[in-house]
């Protein structure tokens, strides 16, 4: 597969072909995801939960994110690497620039930041300085203590209107991608239509421009035994991790995943 760039993702959106993304934290899985045709590897701060065993993503540091980004880069040949700025790494504009530089120098092609409209200024500054940004909206796990839990966002009309408006403003500020987590499927579809940049969903229905899942979740691995509604175990019916990864790619591309049962209503 030729190297995936922002231009590739943009043209997949224009063609109506779904974009495949999975979280990835090391070199071996980066290679396995390449073999399966996963287009974007997300070095997510979910590593704080699935690798480090914390009960939230808050303890993860930028140094840890840079370490895992470098591991993924070494195993990757052609996917686009997206790395998370962890909790409070973008608390000030200066921190945002310095921490994004660390992730890009470790091998990321794009950084992801969680939040809403307040992200606009940092997105503009990063984009001007050559750093593509994905804005993670809806359920933003770094704000779990403000949100009062891992809850679906945008269910009432005011919240939905605000999210639509923020998405457009962040695109105008220079965001290259949006990620919507746990938002009603209808709202996610509207936002995906309203912006030109690719919109990736997790728990956001099938009408976004692409899908992402946490690698461990889709391989049926869990410490707590609690499986979110939007997760599908792709190991079921497969005899290897490699074939489960391929099944994920095929189902996202074929729009058979996510099903209606994996989404949320308003
Ligand atoms: O950190 C992460 O893995 C994420 C996904 C849940 C989208 O942000």
Could you characterize the architecture of this molecule?
41% of the residues lie in helices and 14% in strands. It contains eleven helices and eight strands. It is an alpha/beta fold and 266 residues long. It has helices spanning 6-15, 27-36, 47-50, 62-75, 93-106, 120-128, 144-147, 157-173, 185-194, 215-218, 241-253; strands at 19-23, 40-43, 80-84, 110-114, 133-138, 177-181, 199-202, 210-213. The longest helix is centred in the middle third of the chain and has 17 residues, at 157-173. It binds 3-methyl-2-oxobutanoic acid (KIV). 3-methyl-2-oxobutanoic acid binds next to strand 6.
What structural class results from the helix and strand content? alpha/beta
Q: In order across it, which strands form the biggest sheet?
A: 1-2-3-4-5-6-7-8
Give the overall average pLDDT: 98
Order of helices and strands: HEHEHHEHEHEHHEHEEHH
Given as residue ranges, the uncertain stretches (5+ residues, pLDDT < 50) are none
Q: Report Rg.
A: 17 Å
Q: Main β-sheet: number of strands, strand sense, barrel status? A: 8 strands, parallel, barrel
Distance between the termini: 38 Å
Instruction: Count the DSSP helices.
Output: 11
Beta fraction? 5-15%
Number of strands: 8
Apparent shape: globular
- Which range best describes the helical content: under 10%, 10-25%, 25-40%, 40-55%, 55-70% or over 70%? 40-55%
Bound molecules: 3-methyl-2-oxobutanoic acid
